[in-house]
Amino acid sequence: MNHFKTYMLLAGLTALFMAAGFLIGGATGMMIALVFALAMNAFSYWNADKIVLRTYGAVEVDESHPEPLIRNYVIDTVEMARSAGLPRPRITVIDSAQPNAFATGRDPDHAAVAASTGLLQLLTREEIRGVMAHELAHVKNRDTLVMTVTATIAGAISALANFAFFFGGSRDEEGNGGGLGGMIGAILIAILAPIAAMLVQMAISRAREYEADRIGAQIAGDSESLARALQKIEAYARGGYENVQAERNPATAHMFIINPLAGKGADNLFSTHPATHNRVEALMRLGVERGARRPAMAAATSSSVPLSGERGGPWS
């Protein structure tokens, strides 16, 4: 259901972009808008991971690092990636007191994960595993590409809306595109199109976070550690630990496991992330269901009855 929702929202975002182009310049404007979007997405596809990692000053680390916390972080991430059938990602650390993490890259073969120094110092090893399993789930689901595309199109719509505000009143197609009506239409595009794009982008972000929580719990084999980690990260993110780079680059906020910007998250139209308490409740329900299945699975094994594959709990 989350995948279907994502595809529909992406289609809607693309249609909105082309419609704005049509209202500004007719059929020609729509084609120019489409070419512009394709060019921006091509650039983002090849360079998004490099740009984001450079923005946050991410430093690549490996198993030879002298700090035990970082060594364990690398070892566990590599082990979970292998068990999830993923290539080894680039593993990086960002210097930030705010505990947080994100994943980036156009596909699993070019993926990178990042954890802040604050996260490594705050959480237990099991909780760090849960967080990084969540990020690996984003890689496995190719969410890093989806979020790059949505951010690029949303940004292009905002740029197009600004163009409409300044030039939208000049088009006169078949005698009814210019004048006062054209100017009013341009103003409406300038105001409404960026808002609509932002709402769609946020809706996609929220859907992908729930899915990454579910898959991440499976990769780590532990939903409760991820739930505890989310609660701790949320408390520190809202407790005065500012992420300076994120505040300067708010368009990247959707990439993090918890919204790094000041303010409170909620499951509403204007939030980039689901409410943390909703995510925690879903993870705890998943843990209870997995625990309830274990006795039944053990009984089935002892009676030599073939087992069917496990399902995904509250998300199935």
UniProtKB/TrEMBL annotation:
It is found in: Cell membrane. One of its GO terms (cellular component) is plasma membrane. It is a multi-pass membrane protein. The keyword Metal-binding applies. Coiled coil: none annotated. Its cofactor is Zn(2+). GO terms for biological process: proteolysis. CDD domains: M48B_HtpX_like. It holds the Pfam family Peptidase_M48. GO terms for molecular function: metalloendopeptidase activity; zinc ion binding. Its EC number is 3.4.24.-. The active site is at E135. InterPro entries: HtpX_protease (IPR050083), Pept_M48_protease_HtpX (IPR022919), Peptidase_M48 (IPR001915). NCBIfam families: PRK01345.1, PRK03001.1. Belongs to the peptidase M48B family. This is Protease HtpX homolog. The lineage of its organism: Bacteria, Pseudomonadati, Pseudomonadota, Alphaproteobacteria, Caulobacterales. The gene is htpX.
